[in-house]
Amino acid sequence: MRRAQRRLEKRPGLVHIFCKKTAAVVSKRLESGRDRLLELHSFRPAIGNRIVESIAKSEKDKTLEQFMIDFFKILRRVFGAIGKQNL
């Protein structure tokens, strides 16, 4: 660490180059959509729990599932009847 610090002290332009390169790397990571610190501090347990509960509740409701099963049964009958007429 001290050796690197001495090198930087001898060549002040290196600090500027290092900072520019570091800023470029950070900017690239942010542009790519990941900010680890933001991710770590963005989670809100209360909101997350409500979302999980809502998903669990909707998975228990079989209304849509039953509707789709009935719908496809009707389609099968209709298209089956159409197919038989074309034979």
Short description:
This protein has helices at residues 2-10, 12-31, 36-42, 45-60, 63-85. The chain is mainly alpha-helical and 87 residues long. The protein is elongated and about 90 Å long.
Question: Would you mind describing this structure in some detail?
Answer:
There is one protein chain. This protein is an all-alpha fold. The protein contains 5 helices and no strands. It has one domain. Helix content is 86%, strand content 0%. It is elongated, with a radius of gyration of 31 Å.
Number of helices: 5
Instruction: Give the mean pLDDT.
Output: 81
Tell the overall outline: elongated
Class based on secondary structure composition and strand pairing: mainly alpha
- Major sheet: size, sense and barrel closure? none
Give the helix level as a range of percent. Answer: over 70%
Stretches where pLDDT is under 50 for at least 5 consecutive residues are none
Cα-atom radius of gyration: 31 Å
Distance between the termini: 86 Å
Question: What's the count of strands?
Answer: 0
Tell me the fraction of residues in β-strands, as a range: under 5%
Number of domains: 1
H/E series: HHHHH
What tags apply to this protein structure?
87 residues, mainly alpha, 5 helices, 86% helix, elongated
Write the layout of secondary structure elements.
Elements: H1 2-10, H2 12-31, H3 36-42, H4 45-60, H5 63-85
